[in-house]
Amino acid sequence: MFIDKAKIFVKSGDGGDGAISFRREKYVALGGPDGGDGGNGGNVTLVADRNLTTLLDFTYRRKYVAESGQNGMGSKCYGKKGEDLYIKVPMGTVIRDTETNKIMVDLAHDGDSYTVAKGGKGGKGNFHFTTPTRQAPNFAEPGMPGEEREITLEIKLLADVGLLGFPNVGKSTLLSRVSKAKPKIANYHFTTLKPNLGVVKVEGVPAFVMADIPGIIEGASEGVGLGFDFLRHIERTRLLIHVVDISGIEGRDPIGDFKKINEELKNYNVKLWDRPQIVAANKSDMLYDEEVFENFKNELNKMGYDKIFKISAATNEGVSDLIKEAARILSTIPVKDLEIDPEEMYIEEDKKFTYDIRVEDGVYIIEGSFVDRLLRSVNVNDPDSLRYFHKVLKSKGIMDELKELGIEDGDLVRLNDFEFEFLL
Q1: Which pLDDT band, with edges at 50, 70 and 90, does 68 fall under?
Q2: What predicted TM-score, i.e. pTM, was given to this entire model?
Q3: Does 368 show up as a binding residue in the annotation?
Q4: Which domains does the chain have, with CATH numbers?
Q5: I want to staple 144 with a disulfide (CB 3.0 to 4.6 A). Which of 8, 77, 121, 413 is the partner?
């Protein structure tokens, strides 16, 4: 089964909490604090693997969570770092942030990797908070939470040559003739449902990968049929072979079909329309009027296409010359990574702890991730810890902001479930 798109949830490990500990050795005077730091959480990293071809595994497992860091311990022992989680994906996988639909990275080559969720930083133990006036701090720093997000994995095939054309024009037959690929072949009047890839090896010709691209029908650029789902598979191909049924036995107009397919490419992405094309006029074994091919060739010459081959995939007529010309053109086209519009790129924002202040019924309410983290690190029943709490509020500018909002002596300030009276 070929699965080329999947959504998964990833979460990096939380950082371990710093320890609150004091030395208790029998013969050590004035032992002091010795709480160690918490370990960092594990990262979630995606790695491109040439041995994978589909995203099938991600249909059975959609949640990936890295290991959290261990909490710090006494004797200044640091907590163990959480194990990083490595997720293997096929080469050619594009990673998108699902929320914004922006591209985070293109894992085009074997071994390419990208960290989609960074582990939370471990918190500092209480020995970090000693000062000349605070020699026994009874508080420590909590670990930072890990990052979590939903991402979309999307395969854009790594093929050198893409076969284009309406259904039933002979693309699958041609691919089976020049490679060991075994696509289903029959007189279908609907499109192939999945891309088929094959390695083309012809004597005297460097090997290359060819893909039978499904979904290209009239209206595909607007989502008709398989539409966008498979048009994207052409984006990596360096050369297109446009297969046209020249026989006319089904009443199709080869010139009209050729124009319609190219119009879909142009509407989808102008870079695809500008890509080099070889035209394969297929089913010539069933052509009874040679003038049909000559008229077809002349019309395409007028449109600027001069690489036109009369072939029969069923009998192998002209196929060798077609493949040799494809290999020759490929040798002149450098391999390039997928071109991504800068506006489509995801920009990582720095994670910051924030807060909001609002006044409700005379109470000054402070909320946000900054408040959650601060309260986790404070023991409100310990005088030293409480002094540290007020010092942080002052250093972060919260006290000044409260004054600007008109707070007065004795007014109540609430941070989650903790309340205190404001004193100027």
Answers
A1: very high
A2: 0.69
A3: no
A4: 5-155 (2.70.210.12), 161-335 (3.40.50.300), 356-421 (3.30.300.350)
A5: 121
